[in-house]
Amino acid sequence: MPQVTEAVRIHLNKLRQGLVTCVHCGVQRTVNMAQYPEYHSGNKSLQVKCNLCKKPFLVRFDLRRYHRVTTHFPGQLVQQQTGSALPPITIASLSVSGVGFHMPIPPDMKLGEKYHITFTLDDEDRSTVSETVIVKCIYGTLIGAEFDPPDRYHHALDFYVLANTPLGDF
Ligand SMILES: [Zn+2]
Is residue 25 part of a domain? Predict the structure, then answer.
């Protein structure tokens, strides 16, 4: 039996259900995220036990593609290579993997460029998010960017996205 340390990624549908395949015996069953009320992040592993063979393995729920929260708060952007600050931006949307923001004027940006983005969430702790992003799409003054590296765990941000997502949208 090979040692299994890698968590199995499970994509959840809008009903918060995902299909889990046991890494030991291959049996499949549907899990509902509501079974794990203490579980908040798409980037944390959770140990589950197979119903059939009773062996434990790790799973990791992948929520990112289903969650995008509309926001409206100010942010700062600094080009990573030159260190130059850009005019203030408005954070328009957030997910655990990326951010959408508005520029005051059409920016001189290129796809794939890296920037350092900083903004404060309107959560209870007024958490500051300060991350490197890569520009993924440019629509006039609206920019879509992905966090770099994409799989990093951001507790405040992940929690914010989940807490602000209506349950019906899972
Ligand atoms: Zn099994």
Answer: yes
Query: What's this model's pTM, rounded to 2 decimal places?
Result: 0.63
Total count of domains within the chain: 2
130 and 79 part of one domain: yes
* Rounded distance between C-alpha atoms, residue 6 and residue 2, angstroms: 11
How far, in Å, is the centroid of ligand 1 from the Cα of 49? 8
Clarify whether residues 19 and 73 are in a common domain.
Answer: no
Q: How far is the CA of 15 from the centre of ligand 1 (A)?
A: 24
Residue 21 CA to ligand 1 center (angstroms) comes to 8
Tell me the chain's radius of gyration from C-alpha atoms.
19
User: Helix, strand or coil for residue 24?
Assistant: coil
Instruction: Return the SS3 of 153.
Output: coil
pLDDT tens across 63-93, in order? 555 567 889 999 999 999 999 999 999 999 9
* Mean pLDDT computed over 95-112: 91
* 96: confidence class by pLDDT, cuts 50, 70, 90: confident
Residue 101 counted as domain residue: yes
> What spacing in Å lies between the alpha carbon of 62 and ligand 1's midpoint?
21
Alpha carbon of 37 to ligand 1 centroid (Å): 23
CA of 44 to the centre of ligand 1 (A): 21
Tell me whether residue 71 is in a domain.
yes
